[in-house]
Request: fold
Amino acid sequence: MSIQNRIRINWQVILRRAWTWTGIAMTVLCFVALFVPMTELIPEKCPIVCKVLIGCAAFIALFVLLALASAVRVLFTNKVCVLTKAGHHVYVQYGDVFSHKVVGKKYSDKRKIVIDVNRCFDTIVDDHLVSLNSLHGQLFQRFYDEGKFDEESLNKTIQDSLAGKPYQLLTTAVKPKGNLRFRRV
Reply:
């Protein structure tokens, strides 16, 4: 993925991190200012407007610097935490979702991949029913290439596991090719 796309996708995370770290840095600076006079940095005879402008410029420069640092960190890691709520984290991870190398060793046994499929659980990867560009198509094509299944045996396995569950039928006018049974959720 190009650098521009990674930044475009993660711009909210980058700005949120930069804002957080800027706030932390300004808090530390204000705490230090309680004990160390800041007259060394900004002369006392400087007008108040000048002091405000210098403070705003320092804040903006710090924010931009920390945003650049956050962008570099996002670009050189393959996993980004995008949300933390109630002690739980949601990560976005870049790489091959099917590779065990993408997930760290301590998480490999906890790794579960959920891939959405079409409503009829079709197994024909033909860029009409199932696109090869989708995770659904890539997974099935991987099964076929590795010789684990062919279209018919995978379809039979899926249909057998869905047996006994309620379903509805589509007509061939609605769907001329593929499975016609679908589960309504």
Observations:
- The two ends are 35 Å apart (CA to CA).
- Helices lie at 3-9, 11-33, 48-75, 135-146, 151-162.
- The first helix runs from residue 3 to 9.
